[in-house]
Design brief:
heterodimer; A: 310 residues; mainly beta; 4-stranded antiparallel β-sheet; 28 strands; globular; B: 130 residues; alpha+beta; 5-stranded antiparallel β-sheet; 7 strands; SMN_gemin7 (chain B); SUZ-C domain-containing protein (chain B)
């Protein structure tokens, strides 16, 4: 019998959650960092949502947050015109990188040696973390605020997205623009990350703010202004499921590195974890067969109360 | 109305501890990965006697720091801070992570603040009379 999805709600933030990122899979599991307008990004255990710690130090809304692959370092981008690097094991601040405007996005290279930042001053910056006092390399080109920037193609290239409605691909060594995509409508679209050629695009039932592709490319999930999470089949583009739960627009959604769950961050100040395979035993979710639900052991099992819909 | 059974959950995700910033130093990950704040000469070919001496020195330094905090209580302390800020206040206490100092009668260029919290990362140095 099909089961109804029980999302796990992670509370703690007091303002909208605007960005989230997973680490890779480490010897201690995988981790999740959330960026929040309350200025206090949080680290959580990725498969349970259990809070591990809060990075204290920013003096303004945190717009972007990321972890390195082994979750030993975190980086955050904030409205206080700084990006900060943190020790993600102790929670200590390691580095503050001053910028000239609000910083929106941060990204580590795979070996954690460099940090990419971008924000409202329209410049991409590459910091060498082994000599942080030296001036970063700057890449100009975008004509409006940068919302997101990532390393790609084994850190040889940079992908950036801006309010100027373009996505640009840059070569890291020459620091030059390789390709630009411009958009005038909003859909969910998939591009080849090396050539920026369109693979496919999908109409969504509502304006979408964030989407994430499953690591095995079976599904993708998306969320946006109608507060719902949508799950689609990647090959057929068919909408498979939609879930209510958040009480505000969904700002970010990401699959975990093992694809077993996805996390969403919302204007309502919460993070929610959703199962990819609903009903499977994983993390805090437990597959309970009907015959196990005898009167003797129901008190051992917690059922989340049904969501109250306002 | 949705007739499907909801997936069972063992418990809810643990939320933040209101009294601490977390990063439990007793967690297996912390114990395994956390380098001490003062870089130690922790190489595999390190003489165990030297390691022991280094640990004794660390303990001594830590004890001195804690005693310093204790002896500052209720004394006037001068804080030398970033942006060329120099203020004076009566020291109350530090929080457990040494993130904030609780002070009273903080003398600032714009007046005296009866109660204040000084962010420790903004402090370069402080001095007081024993």
């Amino acid at each position: 019998m099909a089961m109804r999805q029980t999302p796990l709600t992670c509370s703690g933030h007091t303002r909208p959650v605007v960005d989230l990122a997973f680490s890779g899979i480490t010897a201690y599991g995988y981790f999740l960092i959330s960026a929040c307008k309350d200025g206090k990004p949080m680290l959580r255990q990725g498969d349970t949502g259990d809070w591990i710690g809060t990075f204290l130090g920013h003096k303004g809304a945190v717009w972007g947050a990321t972890l390195n692959t082994d979750a030993t370092k975190a980086a955050t981008a904030a409205a206080d015109f700084t990006a900060k690097v943190w020790d993600a094991v102790s929670g200590d601040e390691v580095l503050t990188l001053a910028h000239k405007h609000i910083v929106k996005t941060v990204s580590f290279t795979q070996d954690s040696s460099c940090l990419l930042t971008g924000g409202n001053d329209k410049l991409l910056r590459v910091y060498d973390l082994s000599s942080p006092e030296s001036a970063p390399q700057e890449i100009a080109g975008h004509t409006s605020a940068i919302k997101k920037a990532l390393w790609c193609n084994s850190d040889r290239q940079i992908l950036s997205a801006s309010e100027d409605k373009s996505v640009r691909l840059w070569d890291r060594s020459s620091m030059e623009e390789v390709k630009t995509l411009t958009f005038d409508t909003s859909t969910i679209a998939f591009y080849n990350a090396l050539s920026l050629e369109l693979i496919k695009s999908v109409e969504a039932p509502a304006p979408i703010n964030s989407a994430s592709l499953h690591p095995e490319k079976d599904f993708f999930v998306a969320g946006g202004e109608d507060f719902k999470l949508y799950k689609f089949d990647y090959s057929t583009k068919e909408e498979l499921e939609s879930y209510k739960g958040h009480f505000g627009p969904v700002h970010c959604v990401r699959f975990s590195p093992d694809g077993e769950l996805y996390a969403s961050g919302s204007e309502d100040g919460t993070l929610r974890l959703w199962q990819t395979a609903v009903g499977k035993t994983y993390g805090l979710w437990k597959c309970v067969l009907p015959e196990d639900l005898g009167a003797d052991n129901t008190e051992q099992i917690y059922t989340a109360p049904p969501e109250v819909k306002a | 109305m949705n007739m499907m059974r909801p997936v069972h959950v063992m418990r809810l995700p643990r939320g933040p501890d209101p009294h601490s910033r977390g990063f439990d130093p007793q967690s297996p990950r912390f114990i395994a990965l956390c380098r001490t704040s003062i870089v130690s000469s922790l190489t595999s070919d390190m003489d165990p006697e030297e390691l022991q001496r280094e640990q004794v020195m660390r303990a001594e330094l830590r004890e001195r720091f804690l005693r310093c905090l204790l002896s500052m209580a209720n004394k006037r302390v001068r804080f030398n801070m970033y942006e060329n800020v120099k203020v004076e206040a009566t020291f109350g206490a530090s929080d457990i992570d040494v993130l904030n100092f609780q002070v009273t009668d903080l003398q600032t260029p714009i007046g005296i603040q009866k109660e204040a919290l000084i962010r420790s990362q903004d402090v370069i140095s402080l001095s007081f009379d024993l």
